[in-house]
Amino acid sequence: MQPSASASNIFDVVVVGAGAAGMMCAIEAGRRGRRVLIVDHAKAAGEKIRISGGGRCNFTNIHTAPDRFISSNPGFVISALRRFRPRDFIDRVDRAGVAWHEKTLGQLFCDGSAQQIIDLLLSDMGKAGVQLRLSAAVDRIDRLADGGFSLTIGGAQVEAGALVIATGGKSIPKMGATGFAYDVARQFGVPVTETRPGLVPLTFEAGLLARTAPLAGVSTPAVAAAGKARFAEALLFTHRGLSGPAILQISSYWREGQEIVLNLAPGLDLFAELRAARAEHGRQSPATAVARHLPRRLAQWIVEEQGAASGNLADLSDVRLRALAGAVNAWAVKPVGSEGYRTAEVTLGGVDTTALDSRTLMAKAAPGLHFIGEAVDVAGWLGGYNFQWAWASGWCAGQAV
Ligand SMILES: Cc1cc2nc3c(=O)[nH]c(=O)nc-3n(C[C@H](O)[C@H](O)[C@H](O)COP(=O)(O)OP(=O)(O)OC[C@H]3O[C@@H](n4cnc5c(N)ncnc54)[C@H](O)[C@@H]3O)c2cc1C
Predict the structure, then answer these.
(1) Substitution candidate for ligand 1 out of 138, 345, 393 with most atoms within 8 A of CB
(2) Which of 53, 186, 317, 339 has the most CB atoms less than 10 A away?
């Protein structure tokens, strides 16, 4: 039997995890007059917000729509995304006087720093009367006879009528990511789907890595495809394999053993271009002809890989030109793996959405227990979608607790 909590440790709502989703939920519950405690084992709130978007926080995407999210239950996000839209978050950003800009593809970033978003949330939590406890680990959770929850937090007993788990996924363990949400889910009989790193650089096996080593640092626009998924964005060669937005996006769809197909000259029929170049400038080197459309180092490398580095365009038959063009327009490459949770921006999978109410994010089998944000089996594309899910799911739970 757990000792009971002192009056100052009795709350209507305890939120575990002071990240994007948890803080949004705490604000909303506090505004509704609920007594709210939010706890985090980190020394500061919103650490992932701080490092997000290269320090400028890509806080939403104006093209938010359900098809920009990956979940075993794709319709689950519809309700929350409808109830709290990008415009709702932009209004808060505007009211706080935080300047922002659209970078590309509907991605909104702070002009200044991501800290402005954290400050906005901390300020709103303060105004809503939310208590924040940092460096506080939750050691134990028990169900009370009245249906509420008892938590042991740093040795102290805390009681709450509703419990919101907002501890995120497994990505970036160095920043304190844990599988805590999944453990709590299992404790209360809520299923968890298989998790894997998403939005993550892909790696090459040693032989291919040795061959591509000279390309590390080269970036080029590309279309990356895996199965039916395809993304047209920048691609970057790294010392481990491939990265850049196109690769991060496709990594969420790619599975071990699968090839990805890269078009390194999107929108260009390189075979036709090379044939025309051969007719007009037959003495041009193939590398020079390809380099009209690709970064020079990459063009040189592809031409060498195709055994076409010596000689000139006039020496290449249609068959060889087609092979060379194919290596650019449809380079099929099999990554050996990914860089894993160490660098993944998001966790795919998580608390099974079929076990949650899509309007309140409450576990159907455990009344009063809610799961929000990245802990849930919902992962967005790159580009502000993951924060929009965190805000929307946090907002919905905040109306319900
Ligand atoms: C490098 C990087 C850049 C990113 N950039 C963007 C971007 O620009 N735009 C975008 O939309 N998304 C971005 N993301 C993804 C986005 O940060 C996450 O999807 C989002 O932060 C998830 O919010 P959350 O509140 O669910 O979880 P988190 O933000 O991960 O918050 C979880 C909180 O719970 C705490 N916690 C964990 N375990 C425990 C425990 N056992 N007890 C107590 N507290 C615990 C953590 O300390 C943390 O504060 C980025 C991710 C990374 C890694």
Answers:
(1) 345
(2) 53
How do strand 229-237 and strand 196-198 relate by DSSP bridges? unpaired
Specify whether the CB–CB gap between 37 and 13 falls below 8 A. Answer: yes
Whether ligand 1 lies within 6 angstroms of the CB of 346 is answered as yes
Find the 20 Cα to ligand 1 centroid distance in Å: 7
18 lines ligand 1 (CB under 6 A): yes
- Alpha carbons 50 and 268: distance in angstroms, whole number: 39
Nearest Cα residue to atom 18 of ligand 1: 386
pLDDT score of 2: 55
CA angle 245, 235, 49 (to 5 degrees): 25
Q: What is the pLDDT of residues 121-135, one digit of tens each?
A: 999 999 999 999 999
Residue 373 near ligand 1, beta carbon < 6 Å: yes
Model pLDDT for residues 229-271, shown as the tens digit of each residue: 999 999 999 999 999 999 999 999 999 999 999 999 999 999 9
- Mean local confidence (pLDDT), 184-189: 98
Measured CA to CA, the distance from residue 240 to residue 155 in angstroms comes to: 44
